[in-house]
Fold:
Amino acid sequence: MPNLPESALLTQEHMALFVDYYELTMGQADLDSNNNSICTENYFARAIPQGEYLISAGLEQVIHYILNLRFSEDNLQWLQSSKSIPEISPRFIDYLRNFKFDGDVYAVPEGTVVFPNEPIINITGRSIDIQLFETYLLSIMNFQTLIATKASRIVNVSEGRTCFDFGARRAHGRDAAVLSARASFIGGISATSLMIASRYFGIPYVGTLAHKFIQDRGGELEAFRDYAMSFPHNTILLIDTYDTIQGAKYAVTIGQEMKADGQKLVGVRLDSGNLLELSKQVRSILDSGGLQETKIFASNDLDEFEIDRLLKSNAPLDGFGIGTRLATGATLDPVSGNSGVSALPGVYKHVEKIEGGKTIFTFKKSNDMAKSTLPAKKQVQRFTDPNQYCIKDRICLWNEIDRGGLLIPIIKKGKLVYDFPTLQEIQVKTQSNLSRLPNKHKTLYQPAVYPVVLSEKLKGLQQKLIKEKNQEHCSNNTDRTFFEIRSINERKRHNP
Structure:
């Protein structure tokens, strides 16, 4: 009897083991040494793969994980029986069995514009507990923030034209496809082709037809007619299966037939070839056939740079379907033309702990200056001009301001205190945030660096801790401050 295939896809029960091994070994070592101080960890992005801003996304899934994290008996049994990890002790197994987060989470709401090194999430709780969240939090936040940002850049250059998510088949796995659709919508994408994303998140769905539908039939005109008969109120024809120009002429025939029946051909889609030249020719064919209202949509390895090039060359395109380069967050060097799949370098770092009633500030002072971190639990202030345009951000110590910071309470003492908005409301928030960011920070080519400064108190604390560490290690190492380091490294951007 052959072995039955398995999906190897995660369920809610499996999520407790979405941890790296060291998160468990550190937890057991903390338990063994009775080190269970109250700590705070920051999530922030060190740099931006491309551009000058980020759109925060993924918080809802992170909070769901934190509130629902439980270790099932099946998972605990596996941990105890696994020969590869014999070090896991019964005492630590019991700790995991009774795990329930009872700490605090403050975070920047989804759809907020943020910048490198600004705290996006603060998590405070027992040291053992909060380190269990690291792998899942980084996986979710880094990916969705990357995709939401990419989507916002695409939508921005599209200048009001409709943009669709076609990226599921090129996403890095099932979950990535679903969350990419979610993040894309946050960034401003109008609709998705992925039905589960529509069902689950309420994102509008969209689609045309594939080349297979046309190849299955005796001819292109027959295929178009069959499709229009089934979907008379939403007919968009894919016209590049054999010859785009001939396909456009067949589309005119179908459009005229539909017009005679009191209907209309919504659009045609170009999926290959020289989109600039073909779109101009197809527009002329449609207009000559009396189909001035029929729209032209384009797909085929599009991103913000290609869309920008097409529109600046006056391509008569009305909308775009974006796949690979959206769902993977791909970057492009517009000078060399080299592209690649990117990742957001977001990190989750220990910044302070409370021990014996005293707050102890912690930070990382690395030989790699770009990996140095800021100490202490922090808040972000955003300053605007009289027209409500953002002019600068200030990272400050948590207790420096009473209100008005970007990070708001999400969980207090293990209880949810935040009413999560709908995805549609998050999208509106994104657009509102972006509208207040000056255009010079949103341009594709050499965007102006948005000013992010440290408060004097935070800067003084950082300098004090650096000095203490230098003395402690009898080192002549540099005592350059965080933003001197940032200036040297230019945030390691990939901007041209």
